[in-house]
Write a structure and sequence with these properties.
With 89 residues, the chain is an alpha+beta fold. 28% of the residues lie in helices and 39% in strands. The protein is globular and about 30 Å long. The relative contact order is 0.22.
């Protein structure tokens, strides 16, 4: 993985209450999964980001927030799709 991407992952994972990070390419293949996320979910996360972009074409890029139990997942696409998993306070 690119060293800039490694630095980004490290910075995100050091944020308070962050439990994991998943990065996926445009084909839905997992580039990196650290912490809680399962690499098998990468295709679904990419599909969600693509559908959200169709729903909100003027939001560049839209952010999807999945709220479940004591966790929240933020999904956004910037060339690659990133999903950040955080524990609620």
């Amino acid at each position: 993985m690119d060293s800039n991407l490694e630095v980004l992952c490290k910075d995100i994972l050091e944020a308070p209450n962050t439990e994991g990070l998943l990065l996926a390419n445009q084909q839905g293949l997992c580039i990196s999964a650290k912490g809680k996320p399962s690499p098998e979910s990468s295709g679904i996360l990419v599909a969600l980001s693509e559908q959200a972009a169709k729903l909100e074409p003027n939001s560049n890029p839209p952010t999807i927030v999945l709220d479940y139990g004591d966790k929240t997942c933020f999904i956004q696409k910037h060339g690659i799709t990133e999903a950040v998993y955080r524990k609620k306070k």
